[in-house]
Amino acid sequence: MDDFFFSLLLAGISVGAVYALIALGLNLTFWTTKTLNFGQGSLMMLCAMLTVFISSQGLAITLAVVGSLAVVAALGVFIERWTVRPALESSGGSMGWVVSTLGFGIFLQGMAAKYFGSQAVAFPDVVFTAQDFVTVFGQYISLQYLVVLAVAVALILAFELFIRRTVWGQAVHAVSLDPELALVQGIPVRRLILGSFMLSSILAGVAGVLIAQIGGTVDPAFGFDLVLLGFVAAVLGGMGSSLGALAGGLLVGVISKLVGGYVSTAAEHGIAFALLMLALAVRPQGLFGRPEVSKA
Amino acid sequence: MKINRRSLALGAAALTLPGLVRAQSGTIKFGFTAALTGPFNEFGEGINRGAQIAVEECNKAGGINGRMVELAEVLDDQLVPDRAVQNLRRILDNREIVGLMCPSGSGPTLAIADMIQADGRPIINPQAQTPTIVYPNGPDKPPRPNLFSISIGNLVESEKLAAALSEFTRIGILHESTGYGVTGADLVRREIMRRKPAARVTVESYNQRAQDMTAQLVRVQRANAEAMLVIGLGADFAVIRRNMSRLNINLALFGAAGAVTVPYIEGAGDLVAGTRAVNHAAFGRRPMHGAAQKFADLYRAKFGTDRWYGPDAANPLISLAGTVGSGYDCINLLIDAIRRVNSTAAADVVRALDQTKDYEGATISRISFTSQNHVALKLEDLGTYEMLKRGDRVVLELRD
Questions:
Q1: Contact, A45 vs A218, CB < 8 A?
Q2: Which of A23, B178, B302, B322 has the most CB atoms in a 10 Å sphere around its CB?
Q3: Does residue B351 lie in a domain region?
């Protein structure tokens, strides 16, 4: 295979897998509340910055990652309780949650800047360094890229299995279809909603750690662009679909890199949003989504 | 009571007179807007620290002809041009401000340049690199009358970088998509082509804070580049260096002055070894010239061996010159000009700055301006450094 094409493809798959993780996180809260947490980018940043901070205190990097994920999981509960629920309850389903989740994200950025400083700080290598790679058929494949891909695909497949094969997964599915009916049938809707925000935040944290080790630095503004690309991936794949999130993320990642490599690097970022516009015009429900049907 | 024009004029004079007297006898006030917070605050907070040291040093020595100096307006723009414009409006509304310093980057500085030129008060540029800041109509035309620069300008830097890259024929340039990056890349490319018409230069851009630069790097690699120059800031340079390692791209790597800062060293770790960069020569020479050594000692006494200074007390980071020292020099140049003319009137201070000759600054050993030349930095003030790993530390050694 052509080295040039292969390098672009691998990088596209790797960053696309991160977009997919973010898209899956957005999907989780969409399933249970029909809302998206636009503060996901800040949770990615916070998890990465906390990992740096905790590991700098002498703790092992894996413990630092776990501790940081616990903090962002707790913040997920906070976001549901104090930004999404009041907005949904007070305005009967208006779009107030968009502003409140985004606002909370900006607040987190400010807090991170205050307590960790606003400059980029070095992110430690979690498993492999940028110099670790394997050679397959003469091609260098970075182990960091492989880890990102493996973790993202494994998590997405696990979620898909969870939704399809477990009772709790079926309960989530029921809540996504009709939360009131699910409540009548004894499904613990509130716990499921809280759980979806916790898991969504954990996914954001994992995505943050994975992408921070690729870049090598993290700062309070980290994550904002990535959540936009995750949103594009979610819409492209079909809002609410795990496999759609994976397909959408990989598509955005690979097409962006190929356009950047073969056409122009200046067009690399813009192509994702061109894809979004195209998807909304041609197939609004996305690749794996189903069109919504309203019954009178 | 009957109020006529004369009594109104007298009243107005009575109201303004105390202010005038106060302005004459009170402190001499300076102001500036810079990125004091935000992701680029290593530059803005840096010049703020430099300015503080200059003011304290001046006041300890008795001020300017007996009057103390003060940083009266120091505002934060986070390197956002719109905010820099708003801040400067507020600073210029304060008529007691007699001298200013430009913001940290080219974007904010270009945004405020026309406004400050129209105002007429003297301003000195510590860090912004784009040549049009000083010479809006081209470098062969007269400069803005009241705007002076001690920064590493793109023109001189491109000459030094092109000289450093002259041993290579196929060269890649990766630049950030800002005014600083675009202008810098264009100037270096032109200078390389002027020196070596047979050279092949591949130019690629990236957006600040991008987390993956694979597309740019493989395009440079496909052009069979032997060397690559990065014109951007340190955190992005770290992403590029790590990305090169993942792609097993081994080129001779060069960085512009803005790139070889602490975030690059921290973010890229051991990979920085071998990177060559152009920066102020003053802090790389041993012994350092007097003003540079005095500034380094003052900084260490006030702030310690921190992120800007670096961990080695005997050897401050080379980037300390550009991030902090330039702020120190700007305020000292204003102080020196006011002292020489014994006036704070804008026209007098500008005239005195025009006559600055061989002033010993911390970052540039001999600073001179004339009415036609408002850029102090010369080719010999820059050095080419190589990054080396010594034990657990990264050091920059002056090569040329």
A1: yes
A2: A23
A3: yes
pLDDT score, position B25: 59
Q: Please give the residue range of the domain that contains residue B350.
A: 28-152+311-379
Written as one letter, the residue type at A257 is K
| Cα–Cα dist B324/B183, whole Å | 24
Q: What is the DSSP secondary-structure string of A91-118?
A: HTS-SHHHHHHHHHHHHHHHHHHHHH-S
Mean pLDDT, rounded, of chain B: 91
The B-side interface with A (CB below 8 A) comprises 37-39, 41-42, 177, 204-207, 209-212, 214-216, 218-219, 221-222, 234-235, 238-239, 242-243, 245-248, 262-263, 266-269, 271, 307
Preceding peptide of B287 cis, ω within 30°: yes
Domain identity same for B132 and B219: no
- The number of CA neighbours under 13 Å toward the Cβ of A276 is 17
> Within a domain: residue A229?
no
Answer left, alpha or beta for residue B378, where phi above 0 means left and psi between -120 and 50 means alpha.
Answer: beta
Q: Which distant-in-sequence residues (6+ apart) come within 8 Å of A62 by Cβ? A: A126
Let me know the angle formed at the C-alpha of A228 by A193 and B39, rounded to the nearest 5 degrees. Answer: 110
Sheet holding B147-149, edge to edge: B69-76, B28-34, B97-101, B123-125, B147-149
State whether residue A293 is helix, strand or coil: coil
Digit-coded pLDDT (tens) for B301-355: 999 999 899 888 999 999 999 999 999 999 999 999 999 999 999 999 999 999 9
CB-based contact B263 A119, cutoff 8 Å:
yes
With beta carbons under 8 A apart, name residues in chain B contacting A211: 211
Residue B148, domain member (yes or no):
yes
What does the pLDDT average to over A271-276? 86
Write the DSSP symbol of residue A124. P
Residue A213 touches partner B, C-beta closer than 8 Å: no
Given this model, what pLDDT does residue A176 score? 85
Number of domains in chain B: 2
Q: Name B395's bridge partners.
A: B388
Instruction: Report the number of distinct structural domains present in chain A.
Output: 1
Is residue A140 within a helix (H) or strand (E), and if so which, with residue range? strand A139-142
pLDDT at position B1 is 42
Of A215, A221, A226, the CB nearest to B239: A215
Give the whole-angstrom CA distance, residue B117 versus residue B123: 9
Distance CA A113, CA A123 (A): 16
